[in-house]
Amino acid sequence: MMHAVYPGSFDPFTNGHLDVVRRASRLFDKVTVAVLYNPDKLKSFMFSVGERMQIISEAVADLENVEVDTFDGLLADYMRHKGARIIVKGLRAVSDYEYELQMAHLNRQLNPDAETLFIMAATRWSFISSSMVKEIARHGGDVSRFVPEPTLRALRAHYENREG
Ligand code: PNS
Questions:
Q1: Atom of ligand 1 nearest to the CA of 78
Q2: 96-105 per-position pLDDT tens digit
Q3: Distance from C-alpha of 118 to C-alpha of 59, rounded to nearest angstrom
Q4: Which atom of ligand 1 lies at the shortest distance from residue 99's CA?
Q5: Which 8-state DSSP code applies to residue 145?
Q6: Overall average pLDDT of the 22-35 stretch
Q7: CB burial class (10 A; 0-12, 13-18, 19+) of residue 65?
Q8: In Å, what is the CA distance from 139 to each residue of 59, 134, 154?
Q9: Which among 7, 11, 23, 73 is least surrounded, fewest beta carbons within 10 Å?
Q10: Does ligand 1 come within 6 angstroms of the Cβ of 131?
């Protein structure tokens, strides 16, 4: 059984993330989207882990071999806990590479059984990031082309509540 874990912050989940999940779901028997719970108090998320998981669950509802989970602590330990050996990461441009390479090597040191595989999202999503989506949304811009419907609804609700 080829079980892959796709870890990330997903704050929020974009069309780029969704594209990587779809591609992974065609390659592996099972894919777990693993949402980072709370790395440290320095990093603040727009959405709670529950909200991020809810958004992703709705966005991947049509993919039968995909589950959504959360993890805390080291990814290497979570891989052991799940009995999974494939870490899927998305790569956009060369700018992602250095950081991803470092993490892949560290994760290999921490868990030699887990192999990191990179999947490139479709070209049209290669310029999107969660932080850019948040920036556009914060300034009232239209992000509907960049994120799936559940993310769009959550962003709208977030800003409506803040204004109210
Ligand atoms: O979506 P992101 O923010 O690029 O995802 C990063 C993530 C969650 C994959 C990474 O920060 C992570 O694995 N965090 C858990 C702690 C850990 O294992 N770090 C890597 C080894 S030092």
A1: 18
A2: 999 999 999 9
A3: 21
A4: 4
A5: T
A6: 98
A7: middle
A8: 24, 9, 16
A9: 73
A10: no
For tokens 């999107």, the residue is 128
Instruction: Note the pLDDT of residue 44.
Output: 84
Closest among 27, 19, 23, 36 to 3, alpha carbons compared: 27
**For residue 87, what are its two tokens?**
């870490």
With a 6 A CB cut-off, is 12 part of the ligand 1 pocket?
no
Question: For this structure, is 17 an active site residue?
Answer: yes
Place of tokens 């419907």: 149
DSSP helix/strand/coil, 150: helix
CA–CA separation, 93 and 5 (whole Å): 21
Q: Are 43 and 51 in contact (CB under 8 A)?
A: no
Q: Which two tokens stand for residue 63?
A: 């993919």
Query: Domains in the chain, start-ordered, CATH in brackets?
Result: 3-163 (3.40.50.620)
Q: Is 92 a catalytic residue?
A: yes
Residue bearing the CA closest to ligand 1, atom 20: 103
> Mutual orientation of helices 149-163 and 49-59 as an angle, nearest 10°?
140
To the question of pTM greater than 0.90 for the whole model, the response is yes
Distance CA(159)–CA(123), nearest Å, equals 29
The DSSP letter of residue 28 is S
Instruction: State in Å: Cα 45 to ligand 1 middle.
Output: 14
